[in-house]
Specification:
heterotrimer, A mainly beta (106), B alpha+beta (157), C mainly alpha (259), A: five-stranded mixed beta sheet, three-stranded antiparallel beta sheet, 0% helix, elongated, C: 259 residues, two-stranded antiparallel ribbon
Chain lengths: 106, 157, 259
């Protein structure tokens, strides 16, 4: 199941600043919304997103209910070496998804 | 009729409260515009008593958005992003959602460029503020006013 | 609730100010997709596959396309590579199903395949799986012209036209009054589109999710304060068929993003 879509340039020059785009499937239920019978739907959101590059953290974000459903986050990093980017989203009710992408740096 | 009266009263109380807040904020916060208290409190929770300068931070949000459920937002900060001079964090706040926090972003020199995009929810037309902390500890801010229109055809529950 | 009241107010204002300007059908050359009326930012969200949230469903649909049912058959086992076999298919649905003697829409077609070829239970309307498969199939028609020229579809199209042009609901409004006569004007701050279903299933910002044309039509009908069609009801399919005929020749942009 395609839970997350990640866009990392497969190749980059050493020292080049690259853009990384991520999109993940999640309702981001705010906890402030009543259901059709008037009862508040419990909060169910992603609370943290972390990206590591060969194990070292390069980007982290704390998410709140104000982030739209199916969170889309784009950020940048310097292509330092060929390696693996690891993306982890964690949240309420034990939600946890990890994806990886490889990059070749010349 | 009774319900309407109750609404009017609470609205009046709200307006009074807001007026009081505006005055309070003007007195206590330098170099920042007056904003509702919950947003100010959230800002102070993150940045303590740090002086918040204006500038260096650009918030790019369409000034008129088609639907408050999904509002594209890009926040960028002027910084060389070198090992000794970089952006440490960017926090985005709003004044009219149920909660003032939108996103907290943690960066380092390896980001290369302090520019992050996401999509946010805005419950109403309001001010959105982004505040960045630099590696030297200085704190900078940028803000925008956004008009949110409502969808005409919504779902019945 | 307040929003609903506001809407009613706006509908009345729009209709009152334009009551004498009823223009009938939109000439073919003046037709415009909802895409053309969107903001630059919403267009950008649709145009970039790495930013379009509907692509989450498309990729899930691709996985389902290749997933074998209990009887060992996947969609791909009969239809092969969807990029060739499904090219243009969504652009000509709803289509006439000879064995049933009636029009079926793309969702129903997928479910017929599931029950008859895969011996699997039909997927519920608006379920994540059915939307995913529909989005994946519809994606293969992007850029292709909508076609609705099977003569056997004429009865469904005629029924759909009557539904589109007839007044209904507590507001006593027809679809045509907004989407033929007053498109381009504003309703509660939103531009009224012409109502061409070029991009379904769509990721609607209001829904924060993907949804079918039938779901969208239910929103419209609810707005008229009329009784909504049941999912899959012949009237709903007929209205879909008429709308596709009305949009004939326009390019598909599924899966689209709409406000």
């Amino acid at each position: 199941m395609a839970r997350a879509l990640i866009n990392v340039p497969p190749r980059a020059k050493r020292g080049q600043v690259i853009e990384i785009k991520t999109l993940i499937s999640h309702v981001m239920e705010t906890g402030f919304r009543p259901s059709s019978i008037g009862v508040l739907l419990p909060r169910y959101i992603i609370t943290e997103f972390v990206c590591t590059y060969d194990g070292q953290e390069i980007f982290r974000a704390d998410l709140y209910p104000a982030i739209s459903a199916n969170p889309f986050i784009t950020f940048h990093t310097v292509a330092t070496q060929s390696g693996t980017l690891t993306f982890t989203w964690t949240g309420d009710n034990g939600f946890s998804v990890t994806e990886q992408a490889a990059i070749t740096v010349e | 009729m009774k319900a309407k009266l109750a609404i009017d009263q609470s609205r009046r109380a709200l307006i009074k409260g807001a007026g009081a807040l505006v005055c309070g904020v003007l007195l206590t916060v330098r170099k920042s515009e007056a904003t509702p208290a919950s947003m100010q409190a959230a800002i102070r929770t993150v940045f303590g008593n740090a002086e918040i300068g204006k500038g260096k931070v650009t918030l790019d949000i369409p000034s008129l958005v088609e639907n408050g459920n999904t509002v594209p937002m890009t926040v960028s900060v002027e910084s060389p992003m070198t090992a000794t001079d970089y952006v440490k964090s960017i926090h985005v706040f709003n004044e009219k959602n149920p909660q003032p926090n939108v996103i907290g972003i943690h960066l380092g020199p390896r980001a290369g460029k302090a520019s992050v995009a996401t999509r946010i929810r805005l419950a109403d037309s309001q001010k959105v503020v982004a505040i960045a902390q630099m590696s030297d500890g200085s704190v900078w801010s940028g803000q925008v006013d956004v008009i949110v229109t409502l969808a005409a055809c919504v779902e019945g529950l | 609730m307040r929003r609903a009241i506001l809407d009613v107010g706006c509908v009345i204002v729009v209709i009152a100010t334009a009551a004498l300007a009823a223009a009938g059908e939109i000439p073919l050359t003046e037709r415009r997709s909802g895409y053309d009326m969107m903001s630059r930012d919403t267009k950008a969200m649709q145009d970039d596959d790495t930013a379009n949230p509907a692509m989450l469903w498309v990729f899930e649909g691709e996985t389902l396309w290749n997933t074998k049912a209990a009887n060992g058959k996947a969609c791909a086992d009969c239809h092969g590579d969807a990029s060739t076999s499904m090219k243009g298919v969504a652009a000509r649905y709803p289509a006439f199903d000879p064995s049933r003697g009636q029009a079926v829409d793309l969702e129903q077609r997928i479910n017929i395949c599931r029950s008859e070829r895969q011996n699997a239970t039909p997927l519920p309307f608006e379920s994540r799986e059915l939307l995913a498969l529909t989005a994946f199939v519809a994606r293969q028609s992007r850029g292709m012209s909508i076609e609705q020229n099977d003569p056997r579809m004429q009865p469904a199209i005629a029924t759909g036209r009557a539904l589109f042009e007839g007044r209904q609901g507590q507001l006593n409004l027809s679809c045509a009054q907004c989407h033929n006569d007053n498109w381009g004007k504003e309703l509660a701050g939103s531009v009224i589109p012409q109502g061409h279903p070029t991009g379904y299933p769509i990721y609607r910002l209001e829904w924060q999710s993907l949804g079918s044309l039938q779901r969208r039509l239910r929103n419209c009908v609810f707005g008229l304060r009329a009784e909504t069609y049941a999912f899959g009801a012949p009237d709903a399919v007929a209205l879909e068929a008429f709308l596709m005929w009305r949009a004939r020749g326009m390019p598909m942009d599924a899966p689209a993003v709409r406000p």
